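note to self — DONT lose this again. spent like an hour looking for the file last time. sequence + predicted structure for the chain T wanted, 503 res
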Amino acid sequence: MRKFLFLFFLSFLIFVSCENKVNIPEKEFSDVDGSEIPDEDTVSEPLFDLKVEKNEKNLLSCRLTFSTADERKTFVKYYSQTHSGYKIAENEAKNVHYFFLWGMRPDLDYTIEIYSDEETPELLATTGFHSGNLPAYLYPPHLVANEKESVQPGFVILAQHSFYDDANMEPIIFMVDTNGFVVWYFEHYVPGFALLGDPLYRKKTNTISVGVQKGATMGDVETEEGLEVDLEGNIVWQSPDLPGSMYSETTWHHMYRMLEDDTILFIRAQYYQGTVMADRIVNVDKDYSEIWDWGYLDSLDYFDTVECSNPDDYWCDWTHTNSAMIFKDDNAAYINSLWLGFFKVDMNTNNVAWHFGKDGDFTMLSDHQSPWPDCTHDPKFSDSSRRRLVFFDNGLTERFYSRIIEYEIDEEAMTAEITFEFDGFDSGHGWFAGMGWGDVDYLENGNFLVTKGLVDESQNSSVFEVTRDGKVVWEIYTEHNDDVFIELYNADKFVPPLEFLNE
């Protein structure tokens, strides 16, 4: 009797301290190390040494570990009363099992079920985990549209910025699911004032690449300018430490992107005659050995006229390059300048092959009042054929409203034809990114993902998904009140390595 009371009391204490409950079919005991469970209780069990450990780097996730007496292939389901959750599975049979459970929504009780992965799965154990809260300075967006049958499944990854008060913004990126809930975040602090930008999910490695945007006060601070992190929030790579603020010649601005071949492509400022800012496009390996670079100053015979966006400013914003793409198999680079247009560059010779835009090298086949893009951001090709090309078109100098516009281009005939346009006026979604920014991506289901960018204070910055029929089927607004106005430079949507349970 005393032995029974002692074991009951011990089990009660452990349950209170660990907060998680483990259920093995027909047996129930507290979540403890296997060494704390009497041998007679574990020898015959299919599963033992089960632990659930929260992830301090991201309180919307946890680590699940357990052992099995025999080598077994297992899978896990985790869900709550209000979140249908996910399933993840092992690729091979083993004795010691590890799962990282992520994508949870804040402040929910999740049920975790562990199964044998076989034709008739066996429920081996059930436990639980309570997800944590978001950092106080992460401002969750607001879901305003969600027509699920027309929306691309997946997560949207964002970097948070504030128009009102950048100095109080924290360096954080986060993911949002299709129901508008934040399901993942990552924080990273560096000396001085720096934010995180250009987050991009990498399917090949299940990692996220992100750039460190260095503020104006960081000119003499030597620190990393780029990171790669895994889904648990561990830094798996970071760039060499470099000095320089964002518009110096030693660090990146506007774009920092890790490519499929594990090299990095970014844009750096390059100054001409002291105060004229041009740009260099640079491709380096992870040791920062330079592989290829190109700058406007290499082609002054082509770019022979320097014009400033604001002639009265103390420095001349001549080229303002905001994105680039390279296709090494074809030795082709594509450079986008806010003011000058979109260019193809031969990577072997560094010569400009053509200019796309007003007064460029293509003939427009479409009859349209405003056929050419005006001050664009981050153009994308739809596929490897590079015939379809979409722009986030700011319209800063002529049109004064923003739109998404897609062209089909023929490089042999040197013609262009408009194949899609969305400005939102017909549906009340019209906007003007009058201070720039903005982004558009092709999605797997044929829709477009659009980030509005720096809009007027009377509007909300948002990310929305629009069909080719011009229907907005999904949208989130960022926080906008008297104290804070969150705006977004770009966004990336991807299908996470999780199996979604039925919503």
